[in-house]
Design goal:
By secondary structure, this protein is of the alpha/beta class. The chain is 49% helix and 14% strand. The protein has 11 helices and 9 strands. Helix 2 runs parallel beside helix 11 and helix 6 packs parallel to helix 7.
Length: 259
């Protein structure tokens, strides 16, 4: 069975880092997002994070907002994410997580969403605005359906919150590198390492760092102390500027940081 956590652990045991690539479903159309995600899988990403466009993306920076707004304007619906996953799965066995704010999933129906996710070939969910204390239904359903669930730990998270997040997560814990919205940064906040260190004290669950990772040296740096680097904005900007060829070049460039 394809598993995100197993992929991260296996690569770490081999002395390798991991690159988690984010791209929105339906941007700029369902078929074009499938093409983009497949190219990311073949170009060097080890895990895919497929975003569900949402009208109130409180954590997303301007690049991701532009992409998701265009997807929505072009008619994206939540159910379309399963078409995108199936399209990617037909061409790749890469682990796939869906990244979504919680409201679209609740509006669709949690159990129904999870059934469709399993049927399409997805491995689980990243839920940026859901905390473990409020996730009992999701935790129960994910256990029953063998889905991985990724919660976030931030620099502002208390030890108690980090412990709960680490214990509740399956797949990996998402370590937010800095306070603020997503986007490229010349330097990663030094707090990223401390967030991962804090996660480590509560178990051996893999930790991946996201928000601000955009260069090969940052991918290399993050993988020196974490289990993977999460990149989104840099990939979307490359696609926005130069289409699929630009995206392929950027994935190859950032994946070079794993060597």
């Amino acid at each position: 069975m394809i598993r995100v956590e197993k992929t991260l652990r296996d690569r770490r045991e081999q002395g390798l880092g991991s690159l988690v690539g984010y791209f929105p479903a339906g941007y700029p159309s369902a078929e074009e997002s499938i093409e983009a995600l497949v190219s990311m899988a073949s170009g060097g990403c080890n895990v895919l994070e497929i975003g569900i466009p949402y009208s109130d993306p409180v954590m997303d920076g301007p690049v991701i907002q532009r992409a998701t707004e265009l997807a929505l304007a072009n008619g994206f619906k939540v159910a379309d994410v399963f078409q995108v996953i199936r399209g990617v799965r037909a061409k790749s066995d890469i682990p796939i997580l869906v990244m979504s704010y919680w409201n679209p999933i609740i509006a669709f129906g949690l159990e129904r969403f999870c059934e469709n996710l399993v049927a399409a070939g997805g491995q689980g969910l990243i839920t940026p605005d859901l905390i473990p204390d409020e996730a009992s239904n999701w935790i129960e359903i994910s256990e029953n359906m063998n889905l991985e669930r990724v919660f976030l730990a931030a620099p502002s998270s208390s030890d108690k919150r980090v412990e709960a997040t680490t214990n509740a997560s399956r797949g990996f814990v998402y370590a937010v590198s800095t306070m603020g919205i997503t986007g490229e940064r010349a330097q990663l906040d030094g707090l990223a390492r401390s967030v991962v260190t804090n996660i480590r004290q509560f178990g051996d669950r893999p930790a991946c760092v996201g928000v601000g990772v955009s260069t090969p040296s940052q991918v290399r740096e993050v993988n020196s102390y974490a289990d993977g680097a999460i990149v989104g904005t840099a990939f979307i900007r490359a696609y926005e500027d130069a289409g699929i060829s630009g995206l392929q070049a950027k994935v190859t460039e950032l994946a070079s940081g794993l060597n």
